[in-house]
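Form 12-C: Joint structure prediction
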Amino acid sequence: MAVLVVAEITDGALSMDATAKAVTAARPLGDVTVLCIGSLARAAAGEAATISGVARVLCAENALYGHRLAEPVAALIVSLAGEYAHIVAPATTDAKNILPRVAALLDVMVLTDVTAVVDADTFVRPVYAGNAMQTVRSKDEKKVITFRTSTFEAAGTGDPVTIDDVAAADAPGLSEWLEDRVAESDRPELTSAKIVVSGGRGVGSEENFAIIEALADKLGAAVGASRAAVDSGFAPNDWQVGQTGKVVAPDLYVACGISGAIQHLAGMKDSKIIVAINKDEEAPIFQVADYGLVADLFQAVPELTEKL
Amino acid sequence: MKVLVPVKRVIDYNVKVRVKADGSGVDLANVKMSMNPFDEIAVEEAIRLKEAGKASDVIVVSIGVKQAQETLRTALAMGADRAILVVAADDVHTDIEPLAVAKILAAIVKEEDPGLVICGKQAIDNDLNATGQMLAALTGFAQATNANTLAVEDGAAVVAREVDGGLQTIKVTLPAIVTTDLRLNEPRYASLPNIMKAKKKPLDEKTAADYGVDVSPRLDIVSTAEPAARTAGIKVESVDELVSKLKDAGVV
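Section 2 - Result
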């Protein structure tokens, strides 16, 4: 059977990393078709066509799909669903917005944040903030799935495959885009960064986050934050690492002033190397850290920035 | 305008989750249960809309076991006007899937005709993040998920949504489904007098069958396991030692 992978596209640009990881996850399920949706999607489709293991690319380029509003995008995916046994996407906020709507329109359950494929009907996903891993078997004829990208390797690239245009579906016209406020940043994207430097409640204020950012910039890293730091207004929510934020698995994760609440660990414990800097030697973060430094972060972090 | 808020009874977020030794699930017997934190934010937002004169009634709904009545009483104590309990399971370990929940909610939406439904973005037990979107699909309403701010005016809601990399502001035609993110508001605590008053507020009890919805699961749970454990490494004594370890590991 065939699999439809919904590519991650923002303002016409393909997120190669997230999409190529979803292709890797989808490959064991059947022939992979990648669907590129957007008001600008052709360049992204051209790029997606080079991902190894992709059999075909569909391009739905239409002004209706600018800003990827859930109602028209879900209607389009449902209009194409017929020939596919699996409809999947990387578990981005965009896909999490759209795919459950697709599933309900098809009268099937959705499986979100899947971390492993057992067989065509059986999947593993974390529950309870990653404190348990559940293996579930779907009885639905079609499966609608988002894959947690941090657990799959990105597929490589090769010779491009054919790109076919698809027609727009009926648009319900229930919602309207007003504005995007995107944080301007030269830093790498949090979920695909090789290094992540995160701050917690211990950082103390929004201004103090500058020392976390300085270390991140020295390392060419993305900046993360614990939910406690976000709740306290020290950091924006799109920096949040954890069950209710982003799940990351970089080569190096540096946790500064983070106690290590279960909800935070769920978002970073698959990192290859974890460093924890915290003045409380009893902090649970040290139970998962490869290298722990019991120190005042206001001294240790600037010193680390200087010595690296 | 009525506002409908679905609330779920889940394991309290401070409780350490234990996987049962036989792999059949998570132990929920004699464990502290609370309202799903994102649903608390949804209840708070609905009450604020009422206080601002934008909503007339706040109706809370819970679908699950009979004990969810306590969760509804909490929402009533916060300031909701009335509650609907839909009993759909006997065993506290039975989780009603979002698709079935959305079907029951869609039937309630038909009866109650709310202008707005505010849901938590995800429940902290199954972490599915699906009910709001599924309800939007089944009702044919617009959806605005992961709300950071919500403003209601002239038959529409303007919602700033938390998305990867920042905020996206959209305008949805009412009736609509909004799901709450963390920073939408800080939920109030119910005062003792309000907890007493809540006991007298109306609570209707229904069953899934009353709405003609089949709640049998689409997903069979094969097994539930502990996640792979990570072992603690070493403590370093100084920043210099840390730097040399990281250099040895080849990550800097």
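Section 3 - Comments
Chain A has eight helices and 18 strands. Chain A touches chain B through 92 residues (CB under 8 Å).
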